[in-house]
Amino acid sequence: MQNLEAKFKLSDLRRAREKAESLGYDLKATFRQRDTFFRVPRGKLKLREEPSGACLIHYDRAPSGDLKLSSYEIAPVAEPEPLRAVLSAALGVLAEVRKERTLLMKNNVRLHLDSVDGLGGFGEIEAVLDQGVDSARSRADVDELIEALGVRRNHLIGVSYADMLRPV
């Protein structure tokens, strides 16, 4: 699967939510997430745990202009604790990211308003590019949301939360 994504720092998550809702984005949920990132030779591999369940996600991002095109695979995980222990022992842990996420959606575009432990507030837009989705329309929706939130293109962040948390 693929998505078009943008990540950026946000100082006022409440204001961002109000702006998105004024464009027709609907609140879907607010919840805690724990992402454990493992050392892998290509891309990123993380175990995501949240109240609704857990999954293993592998993704790779390539630059696509000022936004990022990401390819990813997701596998549901029934027992995350033993899997985390096995992957930690076999691969090593890069970082653990804990955050509170508010999810808003409009059509195939998701807006994540994240309060990341140790980093602060961020916005993350993901337009899911499944078969049958108009990628030009998705790009227009992403652009509209970025503009409404007052995000400048040079403020887009090209790294993961895990990369931001890792010591230099």
Task: Characterise the protein shown here.
This protein has helices at 13-22, 80-91, 135-148, 161-165, and strands at 2-9, 26-38, 44-50, 53-64, 67-77, 93-106, 109-116, 120-128. By secondary structure, it is an alpha+beta fold. An 8-stranded antiparallel barrel has the order 1-5-4-3-2-6-7-8. The chain starts with a strand and ends with a helix.
What is the secondary structure topology, with strand pairs?
Blueprint: E1 2-9, H1 13-22, E2 26-38, E3 44-50, E4 53-64, E5 67-77, H2 80-91, E6 93-106, E7 109-116, E8 120-128, H3 135-148, H4 161-165
Antiparallel strand pairs: 1-5, 1-8, 2-3, 2-6, 3-4, 4-5, 6-7, 7-8
Protein traits:
168 residues, alpha+beta, 8 strands, 49% strand, globular
- The count of β-strands is 8
Please mark out the parts with pLDDT under 50 across 5 or more consecutive residues, or reply none: none
Q: List SSEs in N-to-C order.
A: EHEEEEHEEEHH
Rough outline: globular
Q: What is the H level of CATH, i.e. the homologous superfamily?
A: Hypothetical Protein Pfu-838710-001
Per CATH, the architecture is Beta Barrel
- If helices are DSSP runs of H or I spanning 4 or more residues, what is the number of helices? 4
CATH class: Mainly Beta
Largest sheet, spatial ordering of strands: 1-5-4-3-2-6-7-8
Proportion of residues in helical segments: 10-25%
User: Would you give the CATH topology?
Assistant: Hypothetical Protein Pfu-838710-001
Share in β-strands: over 45%
How many domain units? 1
Mean pLDDT: 93
- Report, as a whole number of angstroms, the end-to-end distance: 32 Å
